[in-house]
Write a structure and sequence with these properties.
Elements lengths: L1 H16 L1 E10 L10 E4 L4 E4 L5 E7 L3 E5 L6 E4 L9 E5 L17 H12 L1 H5 L9 H8 L2 H25 L2 H8 L3 H10 L4 H6 L2 H31 L1
Parallel strand pairs: 1-7
Antiparallel strand pairs: 1-4, 2-3, 2-5, 5-6
Helix pairs in contact: 6-9
Length: 240
Amino acid sequence: MKKIFIIFLCFVGLQTHAQITLKGRIFDSNTIQILSPVSIENLATHTGSFSDEQGNFSIIGKAGDDILFTYVGYKNKMIQLRPSFDNIPQQILLTLKTIQLNNITIRRGLSAYQQDSVHRASIYKDAFDYEQAKSVFTPITSVYQKFSKKYKNLRKFQNQIIHTEQQKFIDSKYSTEMVGKLTHLEGDSLANFMNAYPMEFDYARQASEVEIKMWVKYNFQDYSQKKNKDIIKQKKIIIH
């Protein structure tokens, strides 16, 4: 009986320390629409990943590890790993946050990005204030203006200004200083990584600082794995 009890304890111990693969898909709890990219982090190991375009995800941990799911505009969800989850597809449902209007605290002073943005807005004010002349003559005049070379060039210039402004905003969130601290990359290596993994404007605008850092860490893991594979391939070519 004592031997059986010892074997049982050993079995429980092995289950506790065995790796568990949590995988599945992530949906909106109300609409059942796919959510992506949702951030998934193992709080015990500080490793993470993101759900793909189909809402699929996979993360490894041990029994008892807390897995945190975060997505912009949704409530955080926490799941504790169990042996029964191992390689069994799970359906994760996230709920929209309830937005409450709080009192606003007005702080004096603007950030460096905001100051530059205000300055750029004043410089290009005339370009954005320009409107197609109202049809004071005939509708034909209005149509002609719309397809004229001057109007097309102005629209192109406005789009360039918008693109520049969006890129400046992305740079303020996805800065070389922040990425360098997280990845320990410098110089050309840092530039190559950030060029290989550009950040979308909508994500930079909506994601929190923590979510952006998680996004950087996840992409850096992918970048490192690809780089290691390339090094192995090059060594094989040299050997042969």
